[in-house]
Design brief:
Blueprint lengths: L9 E7 L7 H11 L4 E7 L5 H9 L6 E4 L11 E4 L1 H6 L4 E4 L5 E4 L2 H11 L8 E5 L3 H12 L4 E5 L3 H15 L3 E3 L9 E4 L23 E4 L8 H8 L3 E3 L1 H17 L4
Parallel strand pairs: 1-2, 1-3, 4-6, 7-8, 7-10, 8-9, 10-11, 11-12
Antiparallel strand pairs: 3-5, 5-6
Helix pairs in contact: 1-8, 4-5, 4-8, 5-6
């Protein structure tokens, strides 16, 4: 369905810096059109020090129904939200904002939902799975929460920074029901192996796991997008594993964003 611009078009900007490489506004605008929604996304280059004035302007703009945030604004954006989802409250970050009925902002971080959706869309069975999560940074933390919400049997987290892994495990204690533990990066015995580290973004990066320990019964997911077939995904495919790469997560986040905004229209 073609994108049509008129006086009734609602706006959903993407704020970031740099922004010149962003492709999601085009993809998201087409996804809105496919759903019959008169909404477009547009990129806005907003330096770190200019977020306050831009957010004030967007709040005063009547046809801005929501917005999305990328680097370096995901943490700073939290302060502009009157309400947030549980995941955003736990992590102190937001990636998508929509209007509350009173015009204030409701925030959510979409990384975890998008990653889980990408795995399921590509054939993974998440509910009841034994999951190894590599990396406990911002994306990894959101993925951990989404995995628990999706009903995994167990979640083992690993990070080269042991203190960061401990911090995430402590954060998840109240909702994990004993399903979370800290472990090594050995994938043996897991159903789903998830890479939430940046390994694979640069040439020569080491693999986050020993590929010799992969088995065809495993599903391997990677957050690294825009770099073609990463060494981890290549090794997993060679081992006979089913996979979902970072580009699959980018596709999934479009639906997550659309669902998040559409909720405000119901």
């Amino acid at each position: 369905m073609p994108i049509i611009l008129n006086g009734r078009t609602r706006l959903y900007p993407l704020l970031g810096d740099p922004i010149i490489y962003a492709r999601s506004p085009d993809w998201l605008s087409h996804r809105f059109a496919e759903r019959g929604m008169n909404v477009i996304s547009l990129p806005m280059q907003v330096p770190e020090g200019a977020l306050d004035v831009v957010m004030a302007g967007l709040a005063a703009t009547g046809n801005v129904d929501g917005l999305s945030l990328t680097m370096p604004h995901k943490t700073a954006g939290f302060a502009y939200c009157s309400t947030v989802t549980e995941t955003s409250r736990m992590l102190g970050v937001v990636a998508a904002l929509r209007r509350n009925k009173d015009g204030s902002w409701h925030g959510h971080t979409t990384d975890g939902d998008a990653f889980v959706k990408a795995q399921i869309d590509n054939g993974a069975r998440v509910e009841g799975a034994r999951v190894l999560l590599l990396g406990c940074g911002g994306a990894g933390s959101a993925i951990a929460i989404a995995m628990l919400d999706a009903g995994v049997r167990s979640l083992t987290i690993h990070d080269r920074d042991a203190a960061r892994a401990k911090k995430l495990a402590t954060l998840l204690e109240f909702k994990s029901g004993g399903r979370v533990r800290i472990g090594s990066n050995d994938p043996t015995g897991f159903d789903l192996v998830c890479n939430a580290t940046p390994m694979g973004m640069a040439d020569g990066d080491p693999l986050p796991i020993d590929p010799a320990r992969l088995a065809p019964s495993m599903f391997v997911g990677d957050v690294v997008a825009g770099h073609g077939e990463t060494p981890l995904i290549r090794a997993a495919r060679q081992a006979g594993c089913r996979t979902a790469d970072g580009d699959a997560m980018v596709v999934a986040v479009l639906d997550v964003m659309c669902d998040f905004l559409t909720d405000a229209w119901r």
